[in-house]
């Protein structure tokens, strides 16, 4: 599968909302044609590289990433390569779970954790000073 063959054959409504385009505009179009006018070049390059990695390795890959389109999203994505009878990858099936809310909570917890670390350091310094 060459880069000019990379295209979406199916996208669910949630994915279409994220990339902010309609089905008829994106389905079946080579990824290279989507860059610039429909989707940011950096986004197309990044996604193409992920897809290419899965195709080349012929193995399932999973990753978490931050995607910035109409707003910031976090996804846990899994790509599954589907091989033809010769063992060549002819298709990818991908699943992406929106974990944005989880990441927001993690960031808040990290801020709270850092706040208490600072207070603990201050408290230790005061204790040492008093001793």
From TrEMBL:
Pfam families on file: PAS_4 (PF08448)
UniProt-listed InterPro entries: PAC (IPR001610), PAS (IPR000014), PAS-assoc_C (IPR000700), PAS-like_dom_sf (IPR035965), PAS_4 (IPR013656)
PAC domain span: 59-111
PROSITE patterns linked: PAC (PS50113)
Protein name: PAS domain-containing protein
């Amino acid at each position: 599968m060459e880069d000019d063959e990379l295209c979406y054959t199916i996208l669910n409504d949630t994915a279409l909302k994220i990339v902010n385009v309609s089905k008829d505009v994106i389905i079946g179009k080579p990824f290279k044609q989507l860059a610039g006018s429909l989707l940011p070049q950096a986004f197309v390059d990044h996604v193409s590289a992920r897809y290419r990695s899965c195709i080349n390795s012929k193995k399932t890959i999973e990753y978490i990433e931050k995607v910035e389109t109409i707003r910031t999203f976090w996804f846990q994505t899994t790509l599954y390569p589907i091989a033809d009878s010769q063992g060549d990858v002819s298709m990818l099936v991908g699943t992406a779970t929106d974990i944005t809310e989880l990441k927001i909570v993690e960031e808040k917890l990290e801020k709270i954790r850092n706040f208490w670390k600072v207070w603990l350091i201050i408290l230790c310094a005061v204790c040492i000073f008093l001793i």
